[in-house]
Amino acid sequence: MIAHKVIFLPSGKTIDVDDGTRLYDAAKSAGLPVASSCRGEFTCGKCVMQIVSGGENVSVQDEEERTLLVRERNDPTHRISCHTLVRGACTVTTTYW
Ligand code: FES
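Above: the input entities. Below: the structure tokens describing the complete assembly.
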């Protein structure tokens, strides 16, 4: 299985995850809290993260994700972490870390 490095800012915590791991699960594996009221079921829109670098190394935002971002009044450039798959090295953050 191919592993990818994910760096979480501002802590700098770094973790290697399998290809296709959700950002949501990567953050939890790194011991970081993830805002959620749906426990990763892609309905609450609270698990938003910002891709600082490596945006080309995560799954492409689809219409469903855009709809949830808008519905929950999130920045449309941010990502719903339970719906975003790691496909390569990336660096991410969110407002509450
Ligand atoms: S945890 Fe609820 S949408 Fe991601």
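Note for the figure: The chain has a mean pLDDT of 97.
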